[in-house]
Write a structure and sequence with these properties.
By secondary structure, the chain is mainly α. The chain has 2 domains: 149 residues, no CATH class; 218 residues, MetI-like fold (Orthogonal Bundle), CATH 1.10.3720. The chain has 17 helices and 3 strands. Strand 1 and strand 2 form a beta hairpin. The protein is flat, with a radius of gyration of 25 Å.
Length: 375
């Protein structure tokens, strides 16, 4: 039995096991406690779906046409969404305006299984794009308007787009500022061994601090500075808001960029550097024409890690008034509203995965072909 067959067996077992758990939950309104819904309670015929998925997966794993497997993650997700739409038809007419159906262990388990199985495929990006495409089409048809997070989105649509822009702006600004500091620091660490220890020690110290603690530590000194020097307050430098958030996020993003810049320069073949020097290149010319281009793929990997990390850390920045998708997460926690939490969490996951895949593609394109074929 090949590796793909083992993967198919494991995935089939997970799908079958999740079928026995509560698949969805139903609540007559936003504040009411939800009740569990099993597949057979929605419609007994829905029990055919897990069996059909398992059969298709096994056939796809044993087929010589491996491209069939690319459709399977999308098929699992589409099946889960179809079951969700079927559940919507069971909502009583008198509760249609306020009732909402949410995902439960089975539903989110299927979605997670689809993602993990798709990530294990060689063409994982293609599988992911198909899954996203099908999900968007189903959402745009209005078939899932009763879904809890969709109802929350309908109420907070304008605020949602504002917070998404804020989240990306904070994460992007922090990564850019970190790059402007960490890339020169990484170059200096490579050229000056004595500077290397100090640079890495400082970056590592920041990484060891919990994000919430670091945000809290900056409130008092920045508040004092803004009160002592009003001009700073006019420039937006104060204890809460965007400035301390970007400052802290930049500190967290510095280490991956610093480390990868240093490593990328360190692994450059000595022959390439010696050839540049033999051609009479100055240190700056050698850096710009030889060292940076050869180290670029590794440097980009550091930027990708820093940006993805910044997207996650930006969630906590909502606690100091910086905004972002964390606004929905913490508001949902305060109101005991799981659907509101999901309104922040699901887009956050999608943005993180999308940023990671997009920057990985950029790394691939900028990697010289001989090295690309070996990786």
């Amino acid at each position: 039995m090949g590796q793909r067959s083992y993967s198919a067996v494991i995935t089939s077992s997970i799908i079958g096991g999740l079928t026995l758990l509560p698949f969805l939950s139903y609540a007559p309104n936003r504040v009411a406690e939800g009740t569990d819904l099993y597949l057979w309670e929605i419609d007994p015929l829905l029990l055919l779906f897990p069996g059909g998925l398992i059969l298709l997966l096994v056939l796809a794993s044993r087929s010589h046409r491996k491209r069939m497997e690319l459709f399977f993650p999308a098929l699992i997700s589409a099946s889960a969404l179809f079951i969700l739409s079927m559940a919507g038809e069971t909502i009583p007419v008198e509760e249609a305006a306020t009732a909402r159906i949410g995902g439960n262990w089975g539903f989110w388990g299927w979605i997670l299984t689809a993602y993990l199985y798709g990530s294990s495929l060689k063409r994982s990006s293609s599988a992911l794009l198909m899954t996203i495409g099908i999900t968007l089409v189903i959402l745009l048809t209005g078939a899932l308007d009763f879904f809890g997070p969709v109802r929350e989105f309908a109420v907070k649509e304008a605020r949602f787009y504002t917070e998404v822009r804020t989240h990306l702006s904070l994460a992007g600004s922090a990564t850019l500022i970190a790059a402007l500091v960490a890339v020169p620091a990484g170059i200096s660490a490579h050229r000056i061994p004595a500077f290397s220890k100090a640079a890495f020690t400082g970056a590592n110290v920041i990484q060891t601090l919990p994000s919430l603690a670091l945000f809290g530590l900056m409130i008092a000194p920045l508040s004092w500075l803004s009160m002592r020097f009003p001009v700073l307050r006019e420039l937006g430098i104060k204890g809460v808001g965007n400035f301390p958030a970007i400052l802290a996020l930049s500190g967290y993003a510095a280490l991956p960029i610093l480390r990868n810049t240093y490593t990328g320069l360190k692994v450059i073949p000595a022959g390439a550097v010696q050839a540049g020097r033999g051609m009479g290149m100055s240190p700056f010319k050698l850096l710009g024409l030889v060292e940076i281009p050869l180290a670029l793929p590794v440097l980009l990997a550091g930027l990708r890690i820093a940006f993805v990390q910044a997207i996650g850390n930006t969630t906590v920045a909502a606690l100091i008034g910086a905004g972002g998708l964390g606004y929905f997460v913490f508001q949902g926690l305060g109101q005991a509203a799981p659907d509101l939490i999901l309104l922040g969490v699901v887009p956050l996951i999608a943005i993180t995965v999308g940023a990671d895949k997009g920057l990985k593609l950029l790394e691939y394109l900028l990697t010289p072909k001989p090295f690309r074929e070996k990786s």
